[in-house]
Amino acid sequence: MKKILLLSDTHSYIDDKILKHVKNADEVWHAGDIGDLSVTDAIKELKPLRAVYGNIDSTEARMEFPLHDRFMCEKIDVWITHIGGYPGRYNPSIRQEIYSNPPKIFICGHSHILKVMPDKTTGLLHMNPGAVGRHGFQKVRTMLRFEIDGEKIQNLEVIEFDK
After folding, report:
1. How many degrees, rounded to 5, is the angle at CA 91 between CA 119 and CA 114?
2. What pLDDT is recorded for position 142?
3. Strands 27-30, 49-51: parallel, antiparallel or unpaired by DSSP?
4. Which whole-number Å values give the CA distances from 136 to 9, 53, 133, in the listed order?
5. N-terminal to C-terminal alpha carbon distance within the chain
6. Are 79 and 101 a contacting pair, CB within 8 Å?
7. May I ask which residue range the UniProt record assigns to the signal sequence (predicted)?
8. Are 142 and 130 in contact (CB under 8 A)?
9. Series of mean pLDDT values for 10-residue runs along the chain (163 residues)
10. Is-contact 52 68, C-beta < 8 A?
11. Beta strand 76-81 pairing with 68-73
């Protein structure tokens, strides 16, 4: 079983409240718009990190992290990208792959809008953790915490912080 902390859109911001949750996870997944790499460096000092770069990220971030990361966690096929869309409105650059070879979990960031929803057409679970950074229009900063146990996704929780 793996305890996952999922975050996105830090925009160079990390604090002790976020890092407290990092310490309680087995792995941290970041869905892009990292900003300053001191954010991912702080996470990597504590826990294993998987991250993708987002549209605001520097060349340095793009050299360290991929645009897409597709991998297995336990027995779950996971795909993380920054600008991915959502069920019925996937980014045109990935739409064909989503429909022909869907992952079990599809994760993206970018919108700053927390959203977890099933795609009834493909059977995947779409997750967007919202934005945990202070930059953006969101009124509440959010992250997601959940567990993957074999083929099960369980104990999904929303973590909220004041902006």
Report:
1. 60
2. 98
3. parallel
4. 9, 17, 8
5. 32
6. no
7. none
8. yes
9. 98 97 98 98 98 97 98 98 96 96 98 97 97 92 98 98 89
10. yes
11. antiparallel
